[in-house]
Amino acid sequence: MTAGRVGVVPRVTDWSVDPETAEAEAKAVALFGHVSDLFAALGHAPTVLSGWIDLVRRLRTDLSVDPRLHELVVVRVAGSIGATYAETAHRRLALKAGVRQEQLDAIDLTATAQTSAEFDDTERAALLLAAKVAAATAGPDDVLTLMELIGERDATELLVIAAFYCCVGRITNALGVVPMGGG
């Protein structure tokens, strides 16, 4: 069933061991065109992987929030918690979504992103929420500030995105899943 490793776990390579595992692989390939390293690691828990892929698909394709804000939030969360796997992947996705390289360069672990001229008020509020979610210090006022700028739906979606990518980062870090090339 496995060959090679993804971090600390063997990479799942035989996705035909049971119908549930085969279905999880099919979902991954349908969504991304391949099985990512994270999915190859999570393939040992096909029930979890299948639900995970469903959630990722919804977060990436079905939300109303601006994709640029989505990717800025993911990059900020991933950088804040040292999740290089997610940060590397989402820096590429951010550029594709229209985030400028100068904006990505301005995101760091200090308050720079919250004061940088590279960001407008909405982006600053989203980045602040992302940083606070990553630090487990976000509160209702942070969400309300963002709601005033982009509405309840989009602010709630960004909150969920931030929390989900905290989860992604913590799992990839715990498993030792790193970007191609080691970081």
TrEMBL record:
The Gene Ontology terms for molecular function here are: peroxiredoxin activity
Query: Entry's SUPFAM superfamilies?
Result: AhpD-like
What range(s) does the Carboxymuconolactone decarboxylase-like domain occupy? 48-130
Concerning Pfam families, the annotation shows:
CMD
Protein name (record): Carboxymuconolactone decarboxylase-like domain-containing protein
This protein's species is Nakamurella alba
